[in-house]
Amino acid sequence: MTIAWEGSMEPDLFGTRRDEPIGSGAVILRGFALDPAMLDEVARIAGLSPFRHMQTPGGRRIGVEMTNCGALGWVSDRRGYRYEPRDPLTGQLWPEMPPRFRQLAEAAAALAGFPGFRPDACLINRYVPGVKMGLHQDRDEAGFDAPIVSVSLGLPATFQFGGPERGDPVAKHSLNHGDAVVWGGPARLNWHGILTLRRGEHPLTGACRINLTFRRAG
Ligand code: MD3
Ligand code: FE
Question: Boundaries of each Fe2OG dioxygenase domain copy (predicted)?
Answer without folding.
Answer: 118-218
